[in-house]
Amino acid sequence: DYDPDAPRVGLQAAEALGWAPEQVFKTLMTLVDAKPVCVVVPSDCEVSMKKLAAAAGGKSAQMMKPADAERLTGYRVGGVSPFGQKRPVPTVIDQAALGHAKVFVNGGQRGLQVRLAPSDLLAALPAKVAITAALDTATAHRPSRGLTSSVAVAIWGVAVLMVAAPVLCGV
Fold first, then answer.
1. Terminal CA-CA length for the chain
2. Taking the model in full, what pTM does it have?
């Protein structure tokens, strides 16, 4: 079971899925120089606001207030996805994603994760790749586990594998 109101939802999601936390990414809404920016980072990491600001071409960054994030994206906090936001904003994906064959990102509601290759994530979403984590996750050696399907949608603890086109449709 997972508690969507827990302080570390991403880590709980990884545990419930049975996957390493560095392969389950969380989506956070931030403000860089007062402009909204979406950041996708491993669930076991915190965002370095300094690195994020630099990656987004700004000087300073801060977390967006939850109510503002919900209003901007159309998703509830804990279920924010980089896909299909009400108002598209610049997105930065942590470089650590490129070190895995597959990663999980939020699918738009609490408890729904989409599993896909980082290259498919970048093909489906105009995003910049940069080191945004407070720790340098890009150089950390972490073993990768993987299934062979193109996309897996996981609902906490139950993975439903779908043979699908590598790029999500309609997002």
1. 28
2. 0.76
